[in-house]
Amino acid sequence: MPESFLARVLRPRGAAGRDTSLEALTQAVRELADAQHKQAAQLKKLLEAQKAQDRRWEDALERWRGEARDWSRGDHQEAVRAGERIQQRWQDAFDSLTDKVKSEQKWRVVFARQLNAVLRSMHLSRLPMSPPHDVSAKRFRLWSQNEEDGIIVGLFEHAGVTDCRFVEIGSGRSGGNAALLAYECGWSGLMIDIVPEAIESLRARFAHNSGVIGVAIAVSPENINQVLSDHGFTGEVDLLSIDIDSYDYWVLEALSVVSPRVLIVEYNAGLGAERAVTIPKNATLDDIPRTYRGASLAALEKLAQRKGYRLVVCDPTGTNAFFLRNDVASQVPGVSVAKAYRPATDRLVVEDVAVGDRRIGLPEGAPVVEV
Questions:
Q1: What is the pTM of this model?
Q2: Measuring CA to CA, which residue among 118, 153, 117 is closest to residue 135?
Q3: Are 138 and 207 in the same domain?
Q4: CB distance 280 to 286 below 8 Å
Q5: Number of domains into which the chain is organized
Q6: Which of 77, 160, 247, 314 is 20 to 30 Å from 11 at the Cα level?
Q7: What is the CATH number for 202?
Q8: Do both 110 and 218 map to the same domain?
Q9: Cis peptide bond prior to 132, omega within 30° of 0
């Protein structure tokens, strides 16, 4: 079977093995053109659907006008109820249009970033890049939200793998950062989420991989080691990812039964790059505004250092921090918080740039603690 274009793109390229043939580049352009053609067809369908929706709204508006003329001849209470119905219909129509616009924006961004990932793979490998840009440039998206898939693949190119096992804490419905490894690579792993419906969705999505275990439970510093032990995930694993939007710092601090080679933790970019802060360990989550939940990058980096890990890169959207265990991939250097930190970006914008200053600041009395 001929080698696919995706395989050629993802294949490591050394100085001797780099594929720069005209035939390969020509095929790449053809496939990109085909992808653009499919995207254009999808956009055409969206436009036709929007025109049909516009016609339905025009018909509905005419009916509402007719009803309004009838209501004007009726009693006042009926007119009020009719007005409320009209208002609700207009709100529903507006919400539907807003959802469609956001969906179209989202997929435009996804498509644009997929093309960008292909171009980076084809051309940037020819240039020398310093850390952490050399790892960040490998980013692409198959399953992840923010192109973490490519960063993970890039790190494992350096770190190697042992038994192809992972632990994903805060998997959501998608499978989180480990979804690529579970679905495409057949890795075994433990996926944990507080929402039972999310775990049911995961069990259906990864039904072809009997090595994926889904557990619906609220993890805490007190129970995390027992949860992992109960399901056989102790000792060395290749990947550990934590994304629970709350006690991430304290759960990582408490973890002692597992030793990942690659560690990914979501950080709160809004807390800035300077101070090492997180929510109090015993805080009631309902009392903490969402903007303060999680931990700053500086806090996670200090904790990771104490546990024997070094920060190597953050994804460009200011979402996840990536660490390597100190005895793994010595050729990948650690970087400072100041160099790795990326501010949060607008996910509906193609460019990975912050839109305004989204740092929330830490006013007196903010519900965080120094660590």
A1: 0.74
A2: 153
A3: yes
A4: no
A5: 2
A6: 314
A7: 3.40.50.150
A8: no
A9: yes
